[in-house]
Structures are given as structure tokens and as C-alpha cells.
Amino acid sequence: MDAAPAEPVSSRPMDAFMLAAIEEAEQGVAEGGIPIGSVVVHDGTIVGRGHNRRVQQASTILHGEMDALERAGRRPGAFYKECTLYTTLSPCPMCSGAILLYGIPRVVIGENRSFMGEERLLASRGVELTVLQDDRCIELMREFMRKHPELWAEDIGE
Questions:
Q1: Euclidean distance between CA atoms 37 and 135, whole angstroms
Q2: Catalytic annotation, residues
Q3: Cβ atoms within 10 Å of 16's Cβ, excluding its own
Q4: H helices within the chain, ranges in order?
Q5: Torsion angle, CA of 103/109/114/118, rounded to 10 degrees?
Q6: Residue 51 φ/ψ, nearest 5 degrees
Q7: What is this structure's pTM?
């Protein structure tokens, strides 16, 4: 039986790592891209920061999570098994696959109202999920989707 997606944690204070992911999302918008940001954290330190760069780099795969993993660099597999990935939006199938491939055990999600990614798959494979339903993350996506529906549909494949 598939595990249920994580329940929202609305009373939890915003931490520095989600704020860093939000800064990445805001940078993506400032560059003319899609407002999704992510950071990879190991032992209390950000080791990789990224944001969706599909538009800026004419890329098919540079989602926020993929960009953060790329920028974390080549590391031993055991390293990623000690990391937490923070992302402003629920991870898509591609990004969820990378999370599983590298054995990242924890993912903190800014919001999943704009898009519900592969949370059930991640949970079924033992990934600990925390969904914040953060107002800033929700508003970033809501505003982007309102202004650029065609770009959002392209990015998410609808």
C-alpha cells in the first residue's frame, strides 16, 4: 500500500534553508524564469543552491531540484544519504527520481497546492516529507501561473 503524502505543518516557523530556497525561486523570476528554488543541506550547511533555469538555459531538465543537485557537485553516494532537500514546490517525477537515485532521506516542500508532485512515490520509498504550505511559496507560483500560463504548462508538461 502506498504511504500517504505528508500533512502540512502550518505552525512551524520558517527556517533559513526554506528561506534560501525561496530566494532562489525569486532569483529565477528576476531572470525571467520559473519561480521554483531548492537547496541541498548536509550537516546544517547548504552545499547546493539552485532554481529552475529551463527558460534561461533553454534546458529540458534544469528544474530547481536538479540545479541544486548539480551545484552540490559530484559527491559519494553516502554523502547524499545524509542530506535534506528543500524545495519551494512539490517535486515532479524527474526530480523525485533524482531524490530516490541519490537516496536523499528527507525533503521539505514549500507548497503542493499549485502542483502535487510524486509525494506518494517518495513516501512509499521511505523519504520523510514535510509540506509547509508556505504563503510566500504559494503566492510566487500563483502570480507566475497567472502571468505566464503558457510557460507553466510547458514546464509541467500540460
A1: 15
A2: 65
A3: 12
A4: 16-30, 54-57, 64-72, 77-80, 93-101, 119-124, 135-147, 149-156
A5: 20
A6: -145, 165
A7: 0.90
Residue 90 grid coordinates: 512539490
User: Is residue 40 a contact partner of residue 83, using CB atoms and an 8 Å limit?
Assistant: yes
- Indicate the average pLDDT of the chain: 91
Cα 150 from chain centroid (whole Å): 21
**Per-residue pLDDT tens for 7-66?**
444 444 569 999 999 999 999 999 999 999 999 999 999 999 999 999 999 999 999 999
Of 91, 85, 94, 98, the closest CA to residue 114 belongs to 91
Closest CA to 38 of 22, 54, 27, 15: 22
Cell 502542483 identifies what position?
A: 115
The Cα–Cα gap between 101 and 40 comes to 15
